[in-house]
Write a structure and sequence with these properties.
The chain is of the alpha+beta class. The chain is built from eight helices and 13 strands. Helix 2 (34-75) packs antiparallel against helix 3 (84-120) and helix 5 (254-265) crosses helix 8 (331-341).
C-alpha cells in the first residue's frame, strides 16, 4: 500500500533556502530533478493565474465602489426612480459570468494537478540503480542501502548519498508515528504511516546538497527532524559507498582507545552500533562513520567537537524530548570520547 500526499497549498508561498549548512539548499521553486520540475511548473501556473484573478477581482471591486459614489453624488437631492429589473438583470449576468469563469479556472487547476500527480508518481521507465530503505523515528532518519550481498549493505543516518542522473527508489517506513518524507528540490511529499510501507523514486539532475524535512507534525521536535541528500558524481558516490562499508578503525591512539572503552561502558552501547566493535544497539543511529557526516541530531547541529560535546552531555538542551539520556562524563572522559568519535570517518 502506498501513501502519497503532495501539499500544493503549502508550496504556494514557501521556499525555504536558509539552512544549518551554508551549501545546502531547500526550495520548491529551484528544482533539481524531473519530479520537482513538474511541481515547480504547476506552482508557477497557479501563482500567475491566481494573481491575475486577484487583480481582476480587486479592479472590479474598485470600479464598483467608484461608480456607486459617483452615482450617489449625481442623484443627491433628486427623486429618481430606478428600474430594479434592469439592475437585477445586469447583476445576474455578472454573477453568472463569475460562476462560469470560476468553474473553468478550478477545473483547469484540478486537471493540471491530476496530470502532475500522475506524472511524478508514474512507474519509472529507467532501470533502478539504488534501492534505499528509509525509516522515520522520533526524531531522526535511519538510512539503509539494500544489497543482495549482506556484507555490501550500508547503514547510516540523516544523510543520503545518491549519484547524479541515476534513478533511486526509496522504500519508506515509520517506526512510531506518521512522518512525511520531503526533499523540496527533488520531489513532493510522501507520508510514512506506521504499518503501511510506501515507495517513491527520484532522480537528481545536478550535483549539490539538498535539505529534506519531515513535513507531517510528529511531535515536540518535528521542526528538528531534517536530513540531507548529497547528490554527487558516480565516482564520488562509489568512493563514499566503499568507505561506508569499512568498519571502525582498529588502529587507535591511546586517547581514542580510552574513548572506545568509555563508549562501551556507558549507556551509549545500549542504543548505537559501531561496526567492528561490541556496540550493536539498534535504538539510535549507526555511528560507524559519524565523523564523515555534516550534521548531527538530524540536522539540528553542525558536526563539530563543540556540538558533539553538547549533545553527549545533555541532548535535552538541544532537542528537548528526544530519546537520548544525558551521559555522565567528566571533562577528561568527555575529551577521550570525543577523540574516539572524531576518528569514525
Amino acid at each position: 500500500m502506498r501513501a502519497r500526499q503532495i501539499n500544493w497549498g503549502f508550496l504556494t508561498w514557501v521556499a525555504l533556502v536558509n539552512t544549518t549548512v551554508a551549501a545546502t539548499t531547500q526550495s520548491s521553486v529551484d528544482p533539481a530533478g524531473p519530479q520537482a520540475q513538474h511541481i515547480s511548473q504547476l506552482w508557477w501556473v497557479m501563482l500567475y493565474l491566481l494573481t491575475g484573478v486577484f487583480i481582476l477581482v480587486m479592479s472590479l471591486l474598485s470600479i464598483g465602489a467608484f461608480r456607486r459614489r459617483s452615482k450617489a453624488a449625481e442623484t443627491s437631492g433628486r427623486n429618481v426612480i430606478q428600474t430594479d429589473s434592469l439592475r437585477e438583470t445586469k447583476m445576474a449576468r455578472v454573477v453568472m459570468g463569475g460562476v462560469v469563469v470560476t468553474t473553468v479556472i478550478l477545473f483547469a487547476l484540478l486537471v493540471s494537478s491530476f496530470i502532475v500527480g500522475r506524472t511524478i508518481y508514474s512507474t519509472p521507465k529507467e532501470p533502478t540503480v539504488l534501492t534505499i530503505d528509509i525509516t522515520g523515528h522520533q526524531w531522526w532518519w535511519d538510512v539503509r542501502y539494500e544489497n543482495q550481498v549482506a556484507s555490501q549493505i550500508v547503514t547510516t543516518a540523516n544523510e543520503i548519498h545518491i549519484p547524479v542522473g541515476r534513478q533511486v527508489v526509496f522504500k519508506l517506513n515509520s517506526a512510531d508515528v506518521i512522518h512525511s518524507f520531503w526533499v523540496p528540490n527533488l520531489h513532493g511529499k510522501t507520508d510514512l504511516i506506521p504499518g503501511h510501507p510506501a515507495e517513491t523514486w527520484l532522480k537528481a539532475d545536478r550535483t549539490g546538497v539538498y535539505r529534506g524535512q519531515c513535513a507531517e507534525f510528529c511531535g515536540h521536535q518535528h521542526a528538528h527532524m531534517a536530513f540531507e541528500v548529497v547528490v554527487e558524481s558516480e565516482e564520488q558516490f562509489q568512493a563514499w559507498y566503499e568507505s561506508q562499508l569499512k568498519s571502525a578503525p582498529a588502529q587507535l591512539t591511546s586517547s581514542q582507545s580510552r574513548g572506545l572503552q568509555l563508549f562501551l561502558s556507558k549507556p551509549c552501547v545500549m542504543c548505537h552500533t559501531i561496526q567492528g566493535t561490541d556496540a550493536g544497539g539498534k535504538v539510535g543511529p549507526d555511528l560507524t562513520h559519524l565523523a564523515s557526516r555534516q550534521t548531527i541530531a538530524a540536522g539540528a547541529l553542525q558536526n563539530n567537537r563543540t556540538n558533539l560535546s553538547r549533545w553527549i552531555l545533555n541532548s535535552q538542551d538541544v532537542k528537548p524530548g528526544n530519546h537520548m539520556p544525558p551521559i555522565p562524563l567528566n571533562s577528561e572522559e568527555l575529551n577521550f570520547v570525543l577523540d574516539y568519535l572524531e576518528s569514525l570517518k
